[in-house]
């Protein structure tokens, strides 16, 4: 993984018009941003939201002053894109979908099945808790970086992550999934 200093230097150079640096900046951060918005909103919308993030970022690069790392700055933009997406979706008339959820996998399920269950669990979290949990526990941001991305104090992020963990444990303990029953019977 490319370090933050190098990514930030590419962002600064891209802001001055260096196309090669812009390409490096996008390549170094694209998968990271995709994962972030996929966990905040949904994998099916992550491509579009990632593209929107980069459209906004590229327009703003000339004014990027590197007061934070470029990665943190870009995650802040991605967060705003996700919030705007949710706001726009709540204004649109709702349609009925055939199914938003997948069948729960059996205990011998594949890694894909496990990812589906994880995504379902993450989607069950309150948005502010999901955002803090994904940023710190999945993307590996520090609490300080996450606080900067989310625009709130570090203590708030710590609290949101702790509550998200509690919510996830409660959801798993309450689930009818075979993996949970196995875990519960092993503890007996």
Automatic annotation (TrEMBL):
Q: Which PROSITE patterns match?
A: SIGMA70_ECF
* Species name: Micromonospora wenchangensis
What is a biological process (GO) this protein takes part in? DNA-templated transcription initiation
Note whether Transcription occurs among the keywords: yes
Q: Name one Pfam family in it.
A: Sigma70_r2
Determine if DNA-binding is one of this entry's keywords. yes
Could you tell me which residue ranges the RNA polymerase sigma factor 70 region 4 type domain spans? Answer: 118-168
Q: Domain (RNA polymerase sigma-70 region): give its ranges.
A: 26-92
In terms of domain of life, where is this protein from? Answer: Bacteria
| Name of the molecule in the record | RNA polymerase sigma factor
């Amino acid at each position: 993984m490319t370090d933050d200093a190098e990514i930030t230097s590419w962002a600064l150079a891209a802001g001055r018009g260096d196309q090669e640096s812009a390409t490096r900046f996008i390549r170094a951060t694209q998968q990271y941003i995709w994962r972030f918005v996929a966990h905040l909103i949904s994998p099916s919308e992550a491509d579009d939201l990632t593209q929107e993030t980069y459209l906004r970022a590229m327009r703003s690069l000339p004014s990027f002053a590197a007061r934070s790392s470029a990665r943190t700055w870009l995650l802040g933009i991605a967060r705003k894109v996700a919030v705007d997406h949710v706001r726009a979706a709540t204004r649109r008339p709702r349609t009925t979908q055939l199914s938003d959820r997948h069948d729960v996998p059996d205990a011998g399920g594949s890694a894909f099945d496990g990812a589906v269950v994880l995504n379902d669990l993450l989607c069950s979290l309150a948005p502010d808790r999901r955002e803090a949990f994904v940023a710190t526990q999945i993307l590996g941001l520090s609490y300080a970086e996450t606080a900067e991305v989310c625009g709130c104090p570090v203590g708030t992020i710590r609290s949101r992550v702790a509550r998200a963990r509690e919510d996830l444990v409660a959801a798993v303990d309450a689930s009818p999934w075979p993996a949970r029953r196995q875990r519960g019977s092993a503890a007996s």
